[in-house]
């Protein structure tokens, strides 16, 4: 084992006290659970609880990720924004499949979503642009809000013994089904 590996093993991982994840009381709609976890992260004072890794696909199918912030969640999906001239916007035009990974280290929780992204209307995009702290009051025709409509969502609550508790949701025909995900530790 290298010195780096030995040092990395000594770093703190999860908080000492973490919430229980009751798989018997999962809501039918995963967005309800996501919003509950997000609200708990906000209430805890977690820094940027709306930040996530947003993954798109390169032309050769390789994934590429970057950190974005969630702008909204509604019937269209999970909103993010960018310039329509950005690399991620180009990647979404070429392949609209994307994924988001939220991680709240303060609670040991993670949510992964994947699905298809669509560009939302100009009115939504301009409202978002004008609400930015750096907006000068002028519209920005390059600004675009996108919504990821998830097809799969996985919720994970960490445990100190690394036997993390996971629940998965899958949307088929417009309806969600869910259940525990059992995988060995590691």
TrEMBL record:
Q: Which cofactor does it need?
A: FMN
For biological process, the GO terms are: pyridoxine biosynthetic process
Task: Tell me one Pfam family matched here.
Answer: PNPOx_N
Q: How and how many cofactors are bound, per the record note? A: Binds 1 FMN per subunit.
**Could you tell me which InterPro entries the record lists for this protein?**
Pyridox_Oxase, Pyridox_Oxase_N, Split_barrel_FMN-bd
| UniProt-annotated binding residues for FMN | 66-71, 87-88, 110
Name the UniProt key words of this record, in alphabetical order.
Flavoprotein, FMN, Oxidoreductase
Q: Does the keyword Oxidoreductase apply?
A: yes
Organism per entry: Brachybacterium vulturis
The UniProt GO MF terms for this protein read: FMN binding; pyridoxamine phosphate oxidase activity
Q: What is this protein called?
A: Pyridoxamine 5'-phosphate oxidase
Q: Pinpoint the Pyridoxamine 5'-phosphate oxidase N-terminal domain residues.
A: 38-156
